[in-house]
Amino acid sequence: MVIQKKICMIGAFATGKTSLVAMFVHSIFSEKYHTTVGVKIDKKAIEIQDKKINLILWDIYGEDEFQELQMSYLRGSAGYLLVVDGTRHNTLQKAFDLQIKIEDAIGQVPFILVINKLDITDEWEIESAEIDDVTQNGWTVIKTSAKHSIGVEEAFQTLAKKILDC
Question: From what superkingdom does this record's organism come (predicted)?
Answer without folding.
Answer: Bacteria
